[in-house]
What we know:
There is one protein chain. This protein has about 500 residues and is an alpha/beta fold. It has 2 domains: about 5-250, Rossmann fold; about 255-505, no CATH class. The chain is built from 22 helices and 14 strands. The strands form 5 sheets. A 5-stranded parallel sheet has the order 4-7-10-1-11. Strand 8 and strand 9 form a beta hairpin. Helix 12 crosses helix 14. The radius of gyration is 30 Å and the shape is elongated. The relative contact order is 0.09.
Amino acid sequence: MRPKTLGELRRAVDAGQVARRSVRTEVRDNLIAALRSGGEIFPGIIGYDDTVVPQMVNAILSRHNFILLGLRGQAKTRLLRALTSLLDPEIPVVPGCEINDDPLEPICASCRKRVLQEGDALAIAWRSREARYVEKLATPDVTIADILGDIDPIKAARGGLELSDELTMHYGLLPRANRGIFAINELPDLAGKIQVGLFNILQEGDVQIKGYPVRLPLDVMMVFSANPEDYTARGKIITPLKDRIGSEIRTHYPQSRSHAMAITSQEAWLSREHADAPASARAVPIDVPAYIREIVEEVAFQARADSKVDRRSGVSQRLPITALENVVSNAERRALVNGEATVVPRVTDVYAALPSLTGKIELEYEGELRGAAAVASDLVRAAVGNVFMGYVDGVDLRKIVEWFDLGGTLQVTDTTPADQLLSQTKGVQGLHELATQATANTERSAPYLASAIDLVLEGLYALKKISRTDDYRYQASESPRRTVRAEPALDPTLPTAGAGRKRYN
């Protein structure tokens, strides 16, 4: 049983039942135990096992304050929050103390006074590891009072105290993070004079609040995140502060498609079922083919290498996450409208997910001239071609291409039902066979085969084996359940989900 009073805590510490150590030592000790046990140190962090994680381990073993430098969407905040797993489950604190004082060695005036008055009978509280993590997003309007503290005239007036009295202090976020981890995200956005206020805590381990000749010896592990200075025009990390940060660790985007797919599968909202849904709103079962997941990830890889996309800004991993959610939603819409039993996304749905792509890429001048929608469409086409080649490498495509060369055409929409698509493509020589062979499709249901056929058609178009005409002058649904009256599209240059017809020839 954990101690409930200061006296019980003293005896537990003397008996070795409760450990007393600094935060950085505590995190180091718990990391050593995790390394010896062979368990996963940072669950949910994918693709950093051989790069970022070893550097973080070295920084923690060195008891360093450290900073994570990387572009947007590289899991910097998640990594910092994962540090809480290396804290003890609970620590004893003085109840009601704003800075979580150690009952055995309090540093604030009010807690020292309570210990003198109550002695070993002082009741103690226990603070969880989650409550010991304090995070602040740096913005230009943050003040030194927000971070360190200031004089509180209201506290002085209520207590009848002089403003110079230590008891009138108002503690900022950093003192309130005492005996825990304090994280500052986007450090360059913090004004230079505020960054100066962090010098003492990083080097001497104490802070001084405005107007008081008192230095508080805080026990805090400081961690930061930032975009590399060369990649941001919003601010910079001042040199003396960089000099005081122990380790600078660079993050990166997934280096392989398999890692990227694992991250997206972990983060994307694909399970649409929920227990409280009424019968009329029950979700249709969803099954996403592997090639759809690959294409979505490949879009991000293509974007990061494209000269029309600003590489200094980066292409966040959120792009494939939100894109896959949109892809599934477009397929879900088609399945609901057509009464299909399974939601199976098609490559066409990736094009319908352009709204989830255009807002996540910053364009260079050439890209701005071309337009975000056109650049995104080109990225999808390049991704489809790259993935499709992996599925048909060494496969003879001439039969299908010849059918189109002889004048064959197909006209479909992204809402075309699976049965109708199969019927329309039945006469295309070798198409059904190739779709089944290329995707190793053992599932013969209509939605699966329709998705495989769509992959072949879009793949041939991406490789410029056949041509495709997109007609965005109309918004139409050709499902057997309903027909929507054709209406002019608002912007014929911007494809939208469900808009237009595709004609392959």
